[in-house]
Design goal:
- With 214 residues, the protein is mainly β.
- The chain has strands at residues 23-28, 31-43, 48-53, 79-89, 99-113, 124-127, 139-142, 151-157, 173-177, 181-184, 190-195, 211-213.
- The protein folds into two domains: 8-65 and 196-213, no CATH class; 79-177, Thrombin, subunit H (Beta Barrel).
- Strand 2 and strand 3 (48-53) form a beta hairpin.
- The model is unreliable at 203-214 (pLDDT under 50).
Length: 214
């Protein structure tokens, strides 16, 4: 038992999970797909989880489209955007239906943290963007209106109460930077390698190499 306000770094370490009991939900064109997870590795040193989501057998091309990842970190003052899902709720009159709204917010980089901070064990970026509850895990990318969206981080948390409903006010939010090695392959795909130093939760298949490619 612990108090709900206890920071995560002071909680007991997570336990191993059975990936056969874990599924990813993918929603497209009002259809819901249940996708199996084959590999999931947790780096307890940086609070980073790497997993592979497989397309259902009857929809093998479901996950063919993807975002290219960017390994270039913006500088303070650069514009960035955050994309996440906000205002999630389950209507009382519906069964199995979740209301949600895709939220895109633009702001600028306030500070880059190259090492661990109070709430994050990995490098991070602080922005002037106020985030909605539920946006955690969404994309953080450079704001280049005429370019493709290439995330370099994912939304982590807000360090203080946010003015989420008043768009005239700026807030603050923190994104966890993806420290990834990128290789562009001849078949038009991107190989992503993430170094995992302290392998933990959810192990099913572990490569011999020190880097995990997904």
């Amino acid at each position: 038992m612990h108090n709900p306000t206890t920071p995560k770094e002071f909680l007991p370490p997570p336990e191993e999970i059975d990936l056969k009991q874990a599924k990813a939900i993918y929603i497209k064109d009002k259809a819901v797909y249940v996708c199996p997870i084959e590999i999931a590795i947790w780096d307890s040193g940086t609070d980073l989880a790497v997993l592979t989501v497989m397309a259902p057998a009857d929809e093998p091309k479901l996950l063919e489209k993807f975002f290219w990842i960017d390994d270039t970190i913006p500088s303070p003052g650069d514009e960035v955007l955050m994309i996440g899902v906000g205002e999630m709720s389950q209507p009382v009159s519906s069964t199995g239906t979740i209301s949600r709204r895709l939220v895109v917010r633009v702001g600028y980089v306030e500070e880059i943290f190259e090492g661990a901070t109070y709430l994050l064990k990995s490098p991070s970026v602080q922005t002037s963007i106020a985030v909605y509850s539920g946006m955690s895990g969404g994309l953080v990318a450079r704001y280049l209106p005429l370019a493709d969206i290439k995330p370099f981080a994912f939304i982590s948390h807000a360090p203080e109460p946010q003015p989420t409903l008043d768009r005239s006010l700026s807030g603050h939010s923190v994104g966890s930077i993806l420290k990834a090695k990128l290789t562009y392959l001849e078949n038009g795909k991107q190989l992503v390698e993430i170094q995992v130093n302290d392998v933990g939760v959810g192990r099913t298949v572990l490569p011999v190499e020190t880097d995990v490619a997904d």
